[in-house]
Amino acid sequence: MGFSRSxxxxxxxxxxxxxxxxxxxxYKRWLRKLPCARCKHVGSDTNPIVAAHVDIAGGKGASTxxxxxxxxxLCNHCHIEQTDVVGWPTFEKHLDGGDAVVLAGVYFIExxxxxxxxxxxxxxxxxxxxxLA
Length: 133
Description:
Layout: H1 25-31, E1 49-53, E2 71-75, H2 76-86, H3 88-91, H4 100-110, H5 114-123
Antiparallel strand pairs: 1-2
């Protein structure tokens, strides 16, 4: 005797996904090649560099991330400290300039692929599910 799987599963509504203006996968890939913004570690198999979203930049809703343009390269150890131990307000005091949002903006401006990404975004606008932050 078998029961259908759906009898025991809750149904979730389909996800709309992230709007195009929030997504910059090439930017995050570029960030992961850079040293950690805090400790300057260059990344390794045991402590890789991750693209850490700076949640205090704004534009974050319930169950969503801020736009990828608000990312910093952090080694996994620093990222764990930031997320699980101290939070952004304390953590950012140890970054160059002491402001994670400003520093994320500097990285985004310095990204070699930024202009092409912006050109593609303006040429192929996705359905608007939010305002450009």
